[in-house]
TrEMBL record, chains A, B:
Species whose genome carries this gene: Nannospalax galili (Northern Israeli blind subterranean mole rat)
Reaction(s) catalysed by this chain's protein: iodide(out) = iodide(in); chloride(in) = chloride(out); bromide(in) = bromide(out); nitrate(in) = nitrate(out)
UniProt domain CBS: residue ranges: 533-594
Gene (name only): LOC103725322
The entry's keywords: Calcium, CBS domain, Cell membrane, Chloride, Chloride channel, Ion channel, Ion transport, Membrane, Metal-binding, Repeat, Transmembrane, Transmembrane helix, Transport
SUPFAM superfamilies: CBS-domain pair, Clc chloride channel
Keyword Chaperone: no
Name under which the protein is recorded: Chloride channel protein
Amino acid sequence: MEELVGLREGSSGKPVTLPELWGPCPRVRRGIRGGLEWLKQRLFCVGEDWYFLMALGVLMALISYTMNFAIGRVVRAHKWLYKEVGDGHLLRYLSWTVYPVALLSFSSGFSQSITPFSGGSGLPELKTMLSGVILEDYLDIKNFGAKVVGLSCTLATGSTIFLGKVGPFVHLSVMISAYLGHVRTKTMGESNSKAKELEMLTAAAAVGVATVFAAPFSGVLFSIEVMSSHFSVWNYWRGFFAATCGAFMFRLLSVFNSEQETITSIYKTSFRVDVPFDLPEIFFFVALGAICGVLSCVYLFCQRTFVRFIKTNRYTSKLLATSKPLYSALAALVLASITYPPGVGRFMASRLSMKEHLDTLFDNNSWALMTRNSSPPWPMEPDPQNLWFEWYHPRFTIFGTLAFFLVMKVALSFSCLFPIPHLISFALWTLLSLAMPGPWPELPHLGFGPAGAAAFSGAVTHSISTALLAFELTGQIVHALPVLMAVLAANAVSQNCQPSFYDGTIMAKKLPYLPWIRGRKLGSYPVIVEHFMNRTITTLAKDMPLEEVAKVVTSTDVIQYPLVESTESQTLVGTVEKTHLVQALQTVTPGQQSCLQDILTDGCPTQPVTLQLSPETSLYQTHNLFELLTLQSLFVTSRGRAVGSVSWVELKKAISTLINPPAPK
Amino acid sequence: MEELVGLREGSSGKPVTLPELWGPCPRVRRGIRGGLEWLKQRLFCVGEDWYFLMALGVLMALISYTMNFAIGRVVRAHKWLYKEVGDGHLLRYLSWTVYPVALLSFSSGFSQSITPFSGGSGLPELKTMLSGVILEDYLDIKNFGAKVVGLSCTLATGSTIFLGKVGPFVHLSVMISAYLGHVRTKTMGESNSKAKELEMLTAAAAVGVATVFAAPFSGVLFSIEVMSSHFSVWNYWRGFFAATCGAFMFRLLSVFNSEQETITSIYKTSFRVDVPFDLPEIFFFVALGAICGVLSCVYLFCQRTFVRFIKTNRYTSKLLATSKPLYSALAALVLASITYPPGVGRFMASRLSMKEHLDTLFDNNSWALMTRNSSPPWPMEPDPQNLWFEWYHPRFTIFGTLAFFLVMKVALSFSCLFPIPHLISFALWTLLSLAMPGPWPELPHLGFGPAGAAAFSGAVTHSISTALLAFELTGQIVHALPVLMAVLAANAVSQNCQPSFYDGTIMAKKLPYLPWIRGRKLGSYPVIVEHFMNRTITTLAKDMPLEEVAKVVTSTDVIQYPLVESTESQTLVGTVEKTHLVQALQTVTPGQQSCLQDILTDGCPTQPVTLQLSPETSLYQTHNLFELLTLQSLFVTSRGRAVGSVSWVELKKAISTLINPPAPK
């Protein structure tokens, strides 16, 4: 049906529809419509990227907050159950253990049944993706659901199982960002550019950290140092914007929920400001940092060995492959039995939740002094005013409980194949600083407890942002220099001895990666592309008969072929994709004698070669190019002739030959 | 003289010298020598880069501290003179003005006579250098002396002339690093690699900031965001290490000099920690941030206009060109007259030194409340306990003095062609937050004074690190979120409207630079190299007769020529430098008929082409390549033939055509 139109009185313009003509206040409505149009233009000229980043931050903050909230409730219910169940040891034991066993086996069964990618930290895979490798399905949105449920259930087991939250959250955030990107591509009809996608992933990594700890600065630094070897300042802006939105929203929610009066740091501390530390303490900071570095090397080594053992051992590998939920349930049962408070759990403060553990370790009272003269009895319930007292045992002393806690937790995190959480590093630092026979026994935790978390987790992940994280969490930055020095010392030790946790996992999982040319070894300079390029490339010449092309296509397994002018000249003119070639070959009527040139002119698409190496390009330069532009492979031409190709495989081999030269014969 | 040797008893090894044989404790000495040798090997296997970075940090810290110390003494002497000179107005006026006039004219005369490069901030030039352009002599060590003397004298004028210290210090640090690099190249005999040099310069920029403010984190962030458009994580480590060494040394010196008990933040503050700000205040933070952004745009615009006026105006340009010391002396006289305390200086707290200004503006007392009911008389001397009182004037009120201070200081910094110091931004924020008619009149300075400095100077320089700097300076980071949001708001406004201070200066000084493709405009994608490359390249063919080569060499003015296989095929085989060609041509006996190939085989060196573009490479990809690899120019080949070249000039033209498309005819 056509609409009726009319002309406005006195106007000679275009006709308008009757409903509009006869509606009330035509001018006002027109004005509003014009205003909205103008606003839309204004808003869109900013670039929808920024709305996208804001949406990402807000979404992640909502997810993080909701998850925290739900977990808190489940943990509280567990505590209530444990308290109410009475004094019978069997009931108590059951109420303590059934909860985590059920949660953990459900969590691992649920995520396993949906997708195998949702387990683990996820960061090593992300690192590989950001260097340009495409891991199919890894960022699929169905992984998201599995990971959220799995993570929530695991964290809801309370103090039984400790899980680092950063890795999973970064993975979640990246998945959300990839999904939003898909939605955008569909609705806006833009073509999906890979560069843009990678940018968004980097920003999403920053958001992941920022929404766990409400720490935008360290989120961005983390995404700089862990995620890639080169960083574009353009990403830096996006990262800051998205991380700030996320962190603000995350803290705002807790204010709205009346948990807090206003937006503050998560673990507010009150260390001395006037004289935060004595000058000689700096040396202890550095020494403890170095010790943390050594311990992190030991940890990394043990972790890798243990993972290898689990995967190669006959029983465990079978159990893991066939029935992961059963393995999880068994592990949970063992862990819960160990942490059962009236039993061994007594010696590892297992009545405290993860947050309470952190709160007590951030404490700035001198435990050594406070427990020197008195030995109060063990309270039936943790005393909310003196939670730290859970760490104390009259015969075992604080040293004993801390050391026992550390050993057990590290062993447990191994057995669950989980990454180590920051919490363990706090305990480590507390123990070290208490044990340090310094001339300052009255100083609690060597001034600044979070320094240990920064040093140890910095050493494990090869990063410095953990130092900044310690300040953002506590709201005090007066210890900037000593903590930074401790982190640097820890990193100096661990970077020289072990690959980082992420790199180690990448190697163990055999994901593709490009080794770093460490310290710009001068030895790498004289090596040129000619020495290591792959010389056996299959070129397709334009004057090749089609049968031969078909033979080549069926006998080789590459994605794209270099296209050369003629078999004789071998002058590179472009590339042609295998799928296109196969399609084109299928439409050719058989028996017709023709050459490749014909199907190219018939419309088989070719791509130009936009960048090419020379045989004289140095290894160093090639490595740089691959890293900076996140390339997969490049063709090598000499005077226009295609003479070879270089891909990650060749580069990696060349670099490893440089680092470990083959024994001379 | 040959040394006498002997054999050790019972040994069948190599003979040793007699003094060694007969010296005491041969074993111990051998052990020590072996140990030292081992230590040396150990130490050198770390890579001497780290020692170099440490030396850089320590040197800069020494320079920074010594300069501060000397300046402090000179300023104190000036104050003493002004106090002792009596009540006569003429004498007082003279003692107030002669000092800065003498210092400033000496400073500008001294540095002018040594080198013209030592003036100004130096950062714009550094930015250009880090993008790969070589500015001859700009990092020469004699500039260093001139800059140190000039800077010290200017800063020693006290509150009369305000100078941003960051820019000059970064320049100084980079000069030291370049000099150390030269020394190293000479002593170690290594070849000087450009990539390594640029890395060191970036680390040096971080050291520059860290040794002024003792703020390693923001130093590194500053070097990330201001110095280049891409950042290698490798540099990040170096930056942190060097900046930490510098900041630690800088603060250590002030402890050794008994100025402080231990290492703490420079401007310690004590804002409330429990409830650092009320939630609604965040909106004011963001709003004030946006206002700061708008004001920074105004400032940047005025500054550029003023510089252009000074340079084009007949009188001033003549004065500046012929007698800069005179100009400086005149400017200093005017400034000193204006700041003369009993005169107009009364209204701008000119009796305070720059450090005292900062101290008072960091104050967290509510000035508005404290001056509401009382109006004490103006003290003869500034009261050390209540320095802020200098800002108060009974009739002018605090608003008046602050506004007057702001206007005057901005105008003055224009007239001296100096960059604006952070101090002005503090005053701006204080004024804005006092003037904000909010429902919280009892809150001092809207919670956190340094936020203003962060927002305004962040907007002027287009950086976020200023936010982190505010926390490192004050030692409190509880305001992380609101300050970050204010800085982001300020940046959002200023980045959309004006180029940053550094970019503006680069444009005004007509330094070479590569425009940024803002927001990855999609319009830039379809443009390919073929559309904008320089097609008129002069190639030298191997079969060219020498006369023709000589003609080409004398008639063109390029540094290197593309070398092609033959005039007909134009297949690119390498490049040859003009200087080498000229040398080789001079040795050829004239009259002898030969071609270019002959002198090449005679030993005229050629370089291989390691990277080449195709005509189909996109503008976006080319831009990325140039930025990432800091290239100057690349040759374009099509099927091996050299068909053109692309350099910064072409890229810039192509990008500006995209941004401002030519009007269709």
